[in-house]
Every structure is written in C-alpha cells, then in structure tokens.
Design goal:
Blueprint: H1 7-13, H2 24-31, H3 44-61, E1 79-83, H4 90-128, E2 133-134, E3 150-158, E4 164-171, E5 174-184, E6 193-201, H5 207-214, E7 223-230, H6 255-262, E8 268-271, H7 277-286, H8 302-325, E9 333-337
Parallel strand pairs: 2-3, 6-8
Antiparallel strand pairs: 1-9, 3-5, 3-7, 4-5, 5-6, 7-8
Helix pairs in contact: 4-8
C-alpha cells in the first residue's frame, strides 16, 4: 500500500467524479503529463447544411434571367416611345383659340366705333359753331337727333311753381341739384318746353332762400331770353333708381316723364353761360343756377379700347402658339411597356 504509484496508474484509479473533488491546480498538474486534447470535428448534419448553403449561393451567383419562369423579355413585350405629358383636350384648345379671335374681333369693332364717334363729335362741333337758331313754335320730337348740340334761342316765362330739382349732383366737390324749369312760350303762340338752367347748391334748393339772396335775378318773373343747346334725351342705365314725382324726388332726366308731369313738350334746352371765375362766383352769390359750357362733352376712349383688345389678342396668340408648337424635351419621353401587344 505504501508503494509509489505512477501518475498514469493514479489517474486510472481516480473515481469518475474525482474532478469535482480535486482542486483545479492538481488537475492541471495531473493533465500536464498527457498530450493536449483535440476537439471532435463537425457532425454529419452540420456538414449537410453547409453543402446545401454553398450550393444555393453558387446557384444565385450564376443564375441567368432566363432561368426565372416569370421573366419576360423585350421581345415578348416590345417598348414604345411616348410623351409623358398629357395631350391637350380638343375643348381646351378650342377655348384657347377663341380668346385671341374674340379679342381681335372686339378690337376691329372698336375701330368702327372710333370712326363713328369721331364723325359724331365733328358734326356736333360743326353745329355748335353755327349762330343760334330761333326755336320754332312747335318742334318735331323725332327730328331732335339731327339737331343735337345745335345752339338755339327762344323767349318765354319760367313757371317756377313747376320747377324740378334733379339730383343730388356734385359740382366742384359740393353737393347740389340741377334746376329744370318749364318755359311758357304762349306769348309767341308756341309750346312750353323744358329748360335745364344749371346747378344750384343744396343750401339754396329752397326757392324762398334764392329769392332772399338773388331776388328777381334768381327767380325771374317776366319774359326772359334763353340761349342754350338743343339736346337729345339721354338714356337711362340699370343702376339709376326710378323717379318719384309724387315725393318730389327726381334722379334721372327722363324728358318724357318730366314733360308729362309739367305739361310741356318733350323738348329740353340746356342753358349756356360764359364759364369765367367771376361769372360763376357772381351766380353762386346771387342764387342763380350755373349753366353749362357751350362745348361738346362726348367722351371718346375707343382708341384705348383698341390698344387693349389688340394687345390681348397678340398676347393670347403667342400663348396659343407656345402651347401647340412647344418642342418636346428629353425628360418628357420614357419607355412604356405595351401590355396589350398582339
């Protein structure tokens, strides 16, 4: 029992669970006498997985597009070059083409209007330059357009009790009214006409105030000489309110309605005066209505309309040309697959 055992015999005699009772240092000392331990190689299952994975990698590396059953080539579905931008609808092109055509048509129509207005102003200025024409006892209302802006002269008495205040109207920023008074020409066995005496301030709208400041000059009671322009009745627009004769409110110079209300003929004469500063100041201080200037006041803006319409027509024509003839860009083309190719 006291014999010394070799390390190999000592190791063989150790129980199977000796590693749990021997300290780590002894174990290292004992195992150092043996050759180093080599781990076992991979199992057959691991080798099978490695071979399968390697085969899949090689197949994916050398796979051709034709090996895929869902692959379709260009020969199966040929390509077609198309523009990506949408084509313009015919209705849109028609509307876009009508804009310059309409503008040029309106410009041409304004040229005709310019010629007509220029001739009208020339005729009116020619009538205005003639000496005053004595007004006949009875006038033909249908012939008034041929005597528009014709200077006339007549005598009679003002009927102030039938006076009409038309307004309100502004004159140099001041509010007032237009005084329209019937002129009785019965002394000459002539018809009664309407006379537009001119503008009066709102503060002198009452006849009693005018009589206090001007007396006979503001409200003449005897026979007077009236010189003025024979004018064609104006036309009412849709924005002007209707007159209310029963309430004494007149907004529009409706000659026919005024003549029926005052018992006069459907003729109106606009009284004229010398429009100097002294004459205007004198009339205002005496309560005398300020008459109109003996000149043609027809507006002629048709040349501006011609420039406007033709400019619009040229601009829209250029836009229409750019829309139709715009060159295609490279970016506006792409390859679209023809799905329904037969």
């Amino acid at each position: 029992m006291s014999a010394i055992l070799s390390p190999r015999r000592l190791l063989l005699r150790l129980p199977s669970k000796a590693s749990s009772t021997i300290c780590p240092s002894c174990t290292r000392r004992i195992t150092s006498f043996f050759p180093s331990h080599k781990p076992k190689g991979p199992s057959s299952f691991q080798l099978t997985l490695r071979r399968t994975y390697s085969q899949q990698q090689r197949q994916q590396q050398y796979q051709q597009p034709g090996d895929n059953p869902n692959f379709s080539s260009v020969l199966d579905q040929p390509a077609r070059l198309v523009r990506t931008n949408r084509r313009h609808r015919p209705l849109g092109l028609i509307i876009l083409a009508l804009i310059p055509l309409t503008a040029f048509a309106l410009g041409t129509w304004q040229i005709q209007r310019l010629n007509w207005k220029t001739s009208l102003i020339a005729r009116s200025e020619d009538r205005l330059s003639r000496p005053p024409l004595p007004l006949p006892p009875v006038l033909d209302v249908t012939a008034l357009p041929d005597f528009d802006y014709r200077r006339v002269a007549t005598r009679g008495k003002f009927l102030h009790d039938k006076e009409i205040l038309l307004g309100p109207r502004l004159y140099d920023g001041e509010n007032g009214y237009i005084v329209i008074t019937p002129l009785d020409r019965s002394l000459d066995h002539a018809s009664t006409i309407l006379v537009n005496r001119g503008w009066i301030s709102k503060g002198l709208a009452d006849k009693r105030k005018r009589w206090r400041v001007g007396g006979e000059r503001a409200l003449p009671s005897g026979e007077v000489l009236v010189e003025g322009l024979l004018r064609e009745p104006p036309k009412k627009n849709s924005f002007t309110p209707d007159n209310k004769p029963e309430e004494g409110k007149w907004y529009f110079p409706d000659v026919k309605e005024m003549a029926g209300w005052t018992g006069a003929q459907e003729v109106m004469v606009e009284e004229t005066m010398d429009h100097t500063i002294l004459a205007i100041m004198d009339r205002q201080s005496k309560g005398v209505p300020i008459g109109r200037v003996p000149e043609v006041n027809l507006r002629n803006n048709h040349f501006q309309y011609i420039v406007t319409w033709y400019s619009l027509g040229i601009a829209t024509s250029i836009m229409f040309y750019l829309v139709i003839r715009r060159p295609p860009r490279d970016i506006t083309k792409k390859v679209r697959l023809q799905k329904d190719w037969a």
